[in-house]
Amino acid sequence: MSSSDAWQPYRESVARQAIFLRNPLPPGPGVCFVCRSAAKDGYDVCYPCRTHRDASHLTSDAVVPIAYALKGAQHAHHLATYKFEPPSYSARAALQALSILFLGLHRPCFEQAAGGRLTHAAVVPSTRGRRGVHPLQALLMPSISLPFVSARPGAEYAKDDRTFRGDRFTAPVLPNARVLLLDDTWTTGARAQSLSHTLKSAGARCVITVVLGRHVNGRHDGSKALVEQAKSTAFDIGRCSLDS
Ligand SMILES: [Zn+2]
Ligand SMILES: [Zn+2]
């Protein structure tokens, strides 16, 4: 069976989801260069991304949101309920189809941005005291032909701490690794960027971060125009933020 045949059920699932999925907008006036959320006039990045930008922060080389997770909409609902206990199995199936198809189609884009073949995958660990394999890793591990880095929580911070913290996580040594870092929802990005810093401090030469949903609250005045523009175009899984 060719890979395109193997992907057919995923394509069908994504076609059904397309009604509520929205591609991230290209960077430019009003759109953050890093995470594709709303940026204020005169800034190329949003406020949280601005706080991550510091010469001492080893942030991701590229951030690739698969879609916006619009607050209150179906994709955001999937991203919450797939990790409930017990989980929503329909949410799991939808997210698995979306992410496996996206990761398969765009792997050449990630490798071009990384300057070579990816060597490892990692997920941002939970801080809610969940034990065992992270639900996102469980969903994707069978389909990603990369060893997963066992990143773990490091120094303790409040659960709702949304600040870049270079010591929030720990990771084993990773000399010259090119890491595909996966996260479900990017809200401020502080946790993913903190883990990127840890991975690079451990020796990784490159980190490409793929997030299933970039959280956006369309009720915020600053995000209304972005949401309206994102909704004006039909979702296309063939597009990624590395080619726009
Ligand atoms: Zn941003
Ligand atoms: Zn691409």
TrEMBL record:
InterPro entries: PRTase-like, PRTase_dom. It comes from the Bacteria. This is Amidophosphoribosyltransferase. It comes from Kribbella aluminosa. The lineage of its organism: Bacteria, Bacillati, Actinomycetota, Actinomycetes, Propionibacteriales.
